[in-house]
Amino acid sequence: xxxxxxxxxxxxxGLDAAVAEFEWDxxxxxxxxxxxxxxxxxxxxRARLHASLGPTTAAELCQLDQLIGQASAELATELxxxxxxxxxxxxxxxxxxxxxxxxxxxxxxxAWIVEATGLPVVSDVRARDxxxxxHGAPLAGILxxxxxxxxxxxxxxxxxxxxxxxxxxxxxxxxxxxxxxxxCLLDEAARRTTGQPQxxxxxxxxRGEPDAALLEDLxxxxxxxxxxxxxxxxxxxxxxxxxxxxxxDLLATLTELTAITVADALAAYAPAEVVAxxxxxxxxxxxxxxxxxxxxxxxxxxxxxxxxxxxxxxxxIGFLACHQVPLLTGPHVLGRISPGDAPLALPxxxxxxxxxxxxxx
Length: 361
Prior knowledge:
By secondary structure, this protein is of the alpha/beta class. It has helices spanning 43-51, 58-77, 111-117, 127-131, 140-148, 184-194, 203-207, 212-218, 247-267, 284-291, 309-322; strands spanning 2-8, 14-25, 28-40, 84-97, 100-107, 121-123, 154-159, 162-168, 175-181, 273-277, 296-298, 336-338, 356-358. Helix 2 runs parallel beside helix 3, helix 6 (184-194) runs antiparallel to helix 9 (247-267) and helix 9 (247-267) runs parallel beside helix 10 (284-291). The two termini are 14 Å apart.
């Protein structure tokens, strides 16, 4: 089965798409990554997405829902042929109250993808888990647990707008949670101080010096002291009034914040290896700050492109949803299916896989 995965993360910088071929290998799933595409959001769409995090209107959300759906449809057609499409959509709000996830909202109307490709589309992949009492986040643990099982404790780190980790331990259930900001504060600081969408290659941060007082204040956020499972989003982590610092020193401070909070979150588990992926791995300053603190490797070294891991995660979720495999909290199949042009025919329900094998195309 060939499945297309579409993902736009909390960085809100663009849309990632990937197509992979899946098959059962005994009780395990074998995935062959075939191709992936990155497509930045047009400047106007990116600006409107960021603005939607504050006060907005139903009309604005409706328009963005269609625009993201149309862009997703266009990108999916570039990766055809396939059997299924999975679209995560763009998260604009993750509602957590008293440590309980109450709801989540992703934009990107899947009907546009169905209409453009004629294929069935899996969407809204977080909602069922939240309805069942879970957090609906992070989803990366689904892939990470299957992929990194072994004789030693390993961790997978995804550096999106929000950083999340999965702790994979021998003979014990995995733990997956958001550690705090990944790129979101870095991108916001770059945008507000330089007018650029990001600190390209971490150049500004590399020239700056962390401000100890600001770093101490930022580390005082109560989210970091919460025990997992926990999840968060950009509605919690954003900058208020900018401190009186140069852009270089501000970005150096925020780089240290991400590195320290990730390392602190992993310290109790002492992983033998931390496999990193996501947009943040392209930031040499952030990569170096993490490498000073963690036994870091990139997911590329294990056969999975670091820049496209979340898109391949979506493809995996789609394959498992087609086979009605329960995931995350209890015996619940994630996502809702919009049928394509042909009558919808699903494979027989399968048991949860015992592992994930990454094979070359």
